[in-house]
Fold each of these.
Amino acid sequence: MSDFKVTVLGSSSALPTLQRSTSSQVLRYHNRYFLLDCGEGTQVQMRKYQIPFQRINEIFISHLHGDHFLGLPGLLSTMNLLGRTEGITIFAPAALVQILTTIFKATGDRLVFPFIVIPLEMDREEIVLEDETIRITAFPLNHRVPTFGFKFKEKFRRLKVNVAAVKEGAINPIHLQTLVTGRDVELLDGSVLRYKDFTLPPPQARVFSYCTDTAPFKGLEDYLRETTTLYHEATFLMNKKERAKKTFHSTAADAGKLAQELGVKKLLMGHFSGRYNDSKAHLEEARLHFNQELFAVEDGLDYRVS
Amino acid sequence: MSDFKVTVLGSSSALPTLQRSTSSQVLRYHNRYFLLDCGEGTQVQMRKYQIPFQRINEIFISHLHGDHFLGLPGLLSTMNLLGRTEGITIFAPAALVQILTTIFKATGDRLVFPFIVIPLEMDREEIVLEDETIRITAFPLNHRVPTFGFKFKEKFRRLKVNVAAVKEGAINPIHLQTLVTGRDVELLDGSVLRYKDFTLPPPQARVFSYCTDTAPFKGLEDYLRETTTLYHEATFLMNKKERAKKTFHSTAADAGKLAQELGVKKLLMGHFSGRYNDSKAHLEEARLHFNQELFAVEDGLDYRVS
């Protein structure tokens, strides 16, 4: 099931390096592309890693620190130059509106496609987008400026088929198509096929949560409940715990503990401080607390949402 | 004399590619570094090409199209994070102030170092910075938004020594140090050493001009007078002449003709449209008009100011 995966475009913290660009990820769910943060250089990373960026219709900006949004004006401008007409919805702190307005006023860019900014200002978890395939919620994090995490939960359109029961009941395929949507079927002779008799519950929903930048705080685990794959910042190691606290960031140990407490299947760590040459120590530190699949992400790599 | 050279950090037009970043150059004159334009990704290009960016004290922004300034907020933020305290002077269209103010208000970045924006609004050539080593002027170009070119003229602190005359006159080295600054020396016996007798005029001053983005216009050659090395945009080829006209850009032929008319020693062309895979045709087209040193610039390369 590689229809739900995230491509990391940038995994540095504030300072980009030659190995790591500033924060950005593309989350792909079936044929939809969601952009999560858009640091400076994101449009070039998209070219490099062949992301079909005109297919992105929703952008989520966690907070208004430069390394999470300064690539957005250039990306929108490029989409425009390349002839985009389809609208874009941007979920972001409200001040982004004035930033984009001020820039586009100066550049004289007339965007042919409409974009709308949905301001994030919730103080608890709230649904920001839901349709029949996915439910996306946002929730507050604990950083120096208003910052938000996002949770993407897949929704199933169909139940699993109970193959044995369907075979035994010699169910007509046409009726089965209705049963798997969770509806009973009344036959011409007045008898009823109960969907529960011929289907099984859907597989466990996969849930991807994106959680950066934040200091640990009481209540975060509630927002992240049901998460199966967690992306969490790990800017520092424990020996820089004070620095993490002062700057409202997390350590690899914080990320590992939280992931273990949540019981997620997979933890992706990123947003590494430029002071670290590699992420080996981050992996070791998180591993002390978390015993499932664990990655320190790298730019350009895909990670399956488990 | 490699003490006057330009390093190209970005040479694409509006759309960055994997080969060409958006506009930016670092002009080095002796130990001073001037940044010319700062498109998205400039700070990473500086790392890649090992520019000591904390040594930049003056930044020149030609105009407020995204591909010429969107890297500036991130660069200033990075300079700040790395502990810069020395001030920066930015020469740019006035609207840049509001853009930077709006962004830094949202990010909460408190810049430790002062920066001042000198608003460009001249309608003719004007001196924007002059000291005993260099004179920098700015002048209007002809683009869709207010746009300015910049001219950097070296100034000589010392005249050339007339070796034969100095030897014949057996001039004391201490007196010679005064003579080469253009001052006469009165000796104890009342006689006077005339500096003109022992020195020669300085070599021809090198003058670098930066000219992007612009359509050709009457009067540009006056602003560029004395230029010895010209950087000029060549977004299009002649077969896209109408497109160039419509978007207020130049062709390689325009650049070549202007350079020939000015009698410059070296022409550097850049700001190539993403539609061209290489710059071979640009070189051929400009060569039809210009018979001195000619380059289509590449990111990361140094070009000596002749």
Amino acid sequence: MEEGFLAGARVAVVGLGLMGGSLAAALASRRACGHVVGVARSAGSLEMALGMRFIHSGTTSLAEGVGGADIVVLATPITDILEKVRTVGPLLKPGCILTDVGSTKRAITQAMEELPPHVEPIGGHPMCGKETSGLAVADQALYRDQTYVLSPLPRTAERTVAIMEALVRAVGARPLLLDPERHDRLVAAISHLPYALAVALVNAAEAMADGDDLAWRLAASGFRDTSRVAAGDLTMMGDILTTNRDHVLAGLHRAQEQLAALARCLEEDDAEGLQALMRAARRRRLEVYG
Amino acid sequence: MEEGFLAGARVAVVGLGLMGGSLAAALASRRACGHVVGVARSAGSLEMALGMRFIHSGTTSLAEGVGGADIVVLATPITDILEKVRTVGPLLKPGCILTDVGSTKRAITQAMEELPPHVEPIGGHPMCGKETSGLAVADQALYRDQTYVLSPLPRTAERTVAIMEALVRAVGARPLLLDPERHDRLVAAISHLPYALAVALVNAAEAMADGDDLAWRLAASGFRDTSRVAAGDLTMMGDILTTNRDHVLAGLHRAQEQLAALARCLEEDDAEGLQALMRAARRRRLEVYG
């Protein structure tokens, strides 16, 4: 039934960057819904998306794009998603599903609670991405085999959840229902903390090198991989850290404790303690990735 | 002239793991020297290395292997290198060059200072490796285009440096002369600190997940890359951290400062300060890797 609804649905994708452009492309190329309308700030992006057949129609007007849509996907930066969630309600038709692809879920779903009752909100977070952002690198295969978190609100109807699960499967991804609080705590651990540690690593290495640029010439695969995410987009990562502040702070404190424990073992010549910390990390890493 | 010496030289490689096995293989396959003798604890390793034509002859006896050698390369774990440097002197013929492939240089070159005067010591650190260790993954191409640090002692003759530079080039690597103290400080920043941060990341994420194993299912490429080196060999990494303790401790303190600075920005809602830390790291990462 939900597949039937989806097959005829008009889907508006607001924001045609990597995530939005790829979602539109997957929906259009797989004929997963009736019509994909793209909403972007620039006419150039719309032309490009139309030329690549990522969207069936496009507009720079939010009101025009979301009016009449059955499903609206907000795929802009988190601060912009928050602003649109607060203002888009009156533009949506009764029963319209409003979702998003933001990397944190608590702040966004809290804002969604305030939507007028005729709107059907549900949070979303596709766990995929690329090094670089923008429509030029959008790819209809981006979502394939990836986990796509859906965070229903207490007010979200079961039918809405089922329709969104169908949409997620239609773009090749695996839906995972997750409460916003648990989502934000877990992604703080496995995504936001790695970013913070990569930033700390590069800045600490810079301080240690102390102007000796030979350091960077000596850097091999260990530094390259450990620091990779520090090259992430500043706006996106700033939004993520500030909208998941409590959990990120908890993670930073845990990491500081771990660094202090390593330092203590070295200072006290505690070879056994050092090996225990190293062994625990190695075992978990091998369990997760083999 | 040094190439001429090398062409006729008898080279003993002590320890046929990934580094020693690959070095022997590169020397033998490129006909870079007159004879490669492998020294290993197990007869099985020697058979395997002989079968793969990595060595011309092999022995489980250190005295037999290094006696008569023109160049001896110690390619065992750092603690074993340190022990052998302290005891191998009387087994070496006059003028024999003694070098190593250990990942830290200060402790090893300090021990080399105590060698009898008839020995020509020089530290070495090829900046290459693999995820996994052992002769089975040894590869004659491992050294190709990699930086190979040479750390002469004050007592090291210029001719010894020239011969080792010729050997490094003969296996396809690029020699880089580097004082042991500067080497250890720089590799603490770009190799040992990344390892410590990866260990801290995995253990901190474990504490944050608090038994919720969904965390590991959500882990994507960010966590995978940032934590990769935490799977490193425990003996090797333990040796590295303890023989480079001062610089690693300095790095851990720098990293703790950086994490505290990130936490302070989040606690004080200092968006500009946060962006400045993130921007500095992003700029350096992009400068190093593009």
